Automatic annotation (TrEMBL):
The keyword Hydrolase applies. Residues 17-353 form the Glycoside hydrolase family 29 N-terminal domain. Alpha-L-fucosidase is responsible for hydrolyzing the alpha-1,6-linked fucose joined to the reducing-end N-acetylglucosamine of the carbohydrate moieties of glycoproteins. This is alpha-L-fucosidase. Keywords: Glycosidase, Hydrolase, Signal. GO terms for molecular function: alpha-L-fucosidase activity.
Amino acid sequence: MTKLREDIVENIDTEIEEYQELPKNIKEKLEWFQDQKLGVIFHWGLYSLAGIVESWQLSEEDDWARKKPWRNDVTELREDYWGLNHSFNPYRFNPDEWAKECKNAGFRYMIFTTKHHDGFNMYDTKFSDYKITAEPSPFRKNPKRDLFGEVAKSFRDVGLNVGAYYSKPDWHSPLYWVPGEHAKGRQASYNPKEKPETWAKYNEFVTNQLTEISENYGDIDILWLDGGWVNARDEQLDMDQIAQNVRSNQPDMLIVDRMIGGKYEDYVTPERKIPEVPPTKVWESNIPLAKNWGFCPNDIYKPFEEILDSLVQVVCLGGNLILGVGPKPDGRLPNEALAILRPLGEWLDTFGEGIYETRAIPKLTIPGWIFTQKDNHIYAFQKRNEQNSLELKQIREELPVVTCLNTNERLTGEIISPIHDESYYQIYRLSY
């Protein structure tokens, strides 16, 4: 069961959905995924040049995206927007710098937008001329013109894992929004049941693109499929064939047909929120650093403490966190984003042992405290303003060896009394 909520489609049954039978290698890959804990997702495309909320203004029914319209007339807006491929030129793009900053920030994996709903391809696809590597793109002669390929290589070079975001709908494709037909909203301009031949061609187009992504760009750990209205109603892609194709090249690839449920949603992706009740499937909260996923001038960025809170809360609930960064149209990462990522990396350098490779302790609930566990350690987190003492026998009868990670001091006694310093979180390692 689904409901529309502004820019996202939210599956309201994810908290209770169970897995169907999973292959052994995918089960192992999901365990690996839960160890990673922190990822980054780059939404980048023509919309960064327009400075608008990704490509949503192209959808006539999505009025929420046009509170500040880029053009007043939708027809003019679409024409001008799709013409941005003449001028989008990320001449300051340096994927090695991106990778360095993200490695230092503590990210373990990266997802890159190969194509958003607008249909502009940020990689060198053979199945569309509407791409960064073809005329009239001014970037087509740049040695780094295959943006996804360059980012993937740079991130692998520093030891980070790679994922590909791909939008199942394609508003630029004449097989999805047919020229001369009125596309009222997000969906195809026609009913696939009434035009099965056209839909079959579109299905082939999507299958071909996803297959080439899995073939041409090295090891890809995650295929993150967006546009949840496709595969939810009458617009049914042949996911059995798609999965067979991509996994013939990448046997351990996780497929995230997000917001759909079923066997091709290997993990679930609550958007812009931390779930009150953790899903039964493996999960990943996705939260942008700013108000928008893509770059917008004068965007409002979240305070560092809010991002840190999100990370700790998500991990203590048993999930992963992926943070959204919108690169600028010239290819640089915004300074406002770096001002959050750099202290996040410093924090993780000190306290990351209580984050990475940990799992939740669902039955351990003590007011003012949240916990993770790893091997024979329990990590106890308390916000600076909570100041609640912790009686160790509330956790186990056996008393642990307790170390305060803030001060690296070993504590004695049966009660942890909060320390008074400037750290946002007080964190203790309980070793049994």
